[in-house]
Amino acid sequence: MSMIRDLRAAVRPSLRPSLRKNSAPYNAYDPTRDPSASSAVVDCAVYRDGRRLMTPANPTPHGAMLQVREEGGFAWIGLHEPTEAEFAGIAREFGLHPLAVEDAVHAHQRPKLERYDDTLFTVFKTIHYVEHAELTATSEVVETGEVMCFTGRDFVITVRHGGQGSLRALRHRLQDDPELLAKGPSAVLHAIADHVVDGYIAVAEAVQDDIDEVEIDVFSTPAKGSPRGSDAGRIYQLKREVLEFKRAVSPLLRPMQLLSERPMRLIDPDIQKYFRDVADHLARVQEEVLGFDELLNSILQANLAQATVTQNEDMRKITSWAAIIAVPTMICGVYGMNFDHMPELEWKYGYPLVLGVIGVVCFSIHRILKRNGWL
Q1: Among 3, 9, 179, 210, which one is most buried in terms of CB atoms within 10 A?
Q2: pLDDT digits over 16-56, tens only?
Q3: Three-class DSSP labels, 61-129
Q4: Tell me: the pLDDT tens digits for 266-324?
Q5: Which pLDDT band holds residue 252 (cuts at 50, 70, 90)?
Q6: 326 vs 187, 331, 332, 367, CA distance in Å?
Q7: What is the DSSP string of 282-303?
């Protein structure tokens, strides 16, 4: 059995795909050359023995399928946000199930793996980290998209939704590795799964940096004029973004396990074992995301506890000063009563004595409260 040459190097050039610039398209599909072709098709090619056939240049999906049926190989058709009308012809040409076609057109699907006759339908949620100079209560941290993949014996159809998650660079890398592409459509499916999961790893690292930043801010001395507990909005927003991340990662774990463990006619045995590696990486990301959620819960609780402590400290200070002010208020209130016969009213030293008593009592109360930590 021939070994697949450097599979990971072919599909994993970087752990931060969002920071890489896509190169120019390789023989990109130009729908203007064929008025009958769908404008949603971004690339269409036929591959035989792991190499892209250059004749005819930029075939239509119908022409690509005819060429595959006559000469062998497989077709890889990439689409971006097709409408029902644009996808209808392709669906009929390749015999795609109506339920899968509906999911592919309308998007907003949960990650899953479904089998329809001789076609596998796989849904991936792509995650893109949104760069931001400063995390605020309204910052968008992650941006989601979707990649649907129809895998048959002699075709792969990828449908992408959202502005991120382009497969152009991935296609180029696979075309540079004919030995891998020679394994057929299952090699493309694995490369897409690996590409998506590597994107999760990159986003997890970036989100970890944001969580560390928030954690440091919560447990550090607040800036002057910034009250304790003012980070709750940032923490809650980050928690919402982590929840979005979790919705993309967790449902995909079961499909990856099925692809790595259950024998399938459409998956090459040499490729199937590499799905185990993808499933392992996905499980690691899931653990990290679950850890993020728990850590943010702890940080939010600590932040709220600090706010409560700060409020208690403020209330103790207010209460302490109220106790000090109560002394002169009481004494002045007593001597402010309009009675004719009151002691010390006619005494020469009565007024300074009262002021002295007020000062001594207030000072004594202040010292006691200061020693007990109330002031």
Answers
A1: 210
A2: 333 333 333 333 334 434 433 457 888 999 999 989 998 77
A3: HHHHHHHHHHHCCEEEEEEECCCHHHHHHHHHHHCCCHHHHHHHHHCCCCCEEEEECCEEEEEEEEEEE
A4: 898 889 888 999 999 999 999 999 999 999 998 888 888 877 777 777 787 888 888 88
A5: very high
A6: 82, 9, 10, 16
A7: HHHHHHHHHHHHHHHHHHHHHH
| Mean pLDDT, all residues of the chain | 82
Q: What pTM was computed for the model? A: 0.75
- Joined tokens for residue 175: 């075309």
Alpha carbon 256 to chain centroid, angstroms: 19
Name the helix (H) or strand (E) containing 174. Answer: helix 168-175
**Tokens describing residue 166:** 């382009």
Res. 212: pLDDT tops 70: yes
Q: Is the peptide bond before 56 cis (omega within 30 degrees of 0)?
A: yes
- Rounded CA gap, 62 and 366, in Å? 90
Do 87 and 105 contact (CB within 8 A), yes or no? yes
Indicate the helix (H) or strand (E) that contains 142: strand 142-151
Is the Cβ–Cβ distance between 44 and 60 less than 8 Å?
A: yes
Residue 107 Rama label (left phi>0; alpha psi -120 to 50; beta) = left
Backbone CA torsion sign across 300, 301, 303, 308: positive
Residue at 4: amino acid letter: I
Three-class SS state of 347? coil
pLDDT band at 113 (very low <50, low <70, confident <90, very high): very high
Taking only Cα atoms into account, the Rg of the chain, rounded to an integer number of angstroms, comes to 34
With CA atoms as reference, report the closest residue to 135 among 58, 250, 203, 212: 212
Helix H or strand E segment including 370: helix 350-371
Q: Tokens for 375?
A: 């002031």
